[in-house]
Amino acid sequence: MNSPSLAASGVDWSQVHAVRLLGVALAAIILIWAIRRMFGGKR
């Protein structure tokens, strides 16, 4: 998956994974919020 050209360009993979994790977490929060709104948030 890690191509040599990307490694050569000085990509900090820990930073890439952090940004990806942040994006996934944000998407999950939005998804949960949307589902709760769809069902009227009754619990």
Set out the fold topology.
Layout lengths: L3 H5 L4 H26 L5
Order of helices and strands: HH
Could you tell me the strand content as a percent range?
under 5%
Low confidence ranges: none
Task: Please give the alpha-carbon distance between the first and last residues.
Answer: 43 Å
- Number of alpha- plus pi-helical segments: 2
Task: Tell me the helix content.
Answer: over 70%
Secondary structural class: mainly alpha
Largest sheet: none
Task: Indicate the overall shape.
Answer: rod-shaped
Transmembrane segments: 16-35
Keywords: Membrane, Transmembrane, Transmembrane helix
Tell me briefly what this model is.
The chain is mostly helical. The protein is 72% helix and 0% strand.
What attributes does this structure have?
2 helices, 43 residues, mainly alpha, single chain
Protein architecture, described:
The protein has 43 residues and is mainly alpha-helical. Helices cover 72% and strands 0% of the residues. The protein is built from 2 helices and no strands.
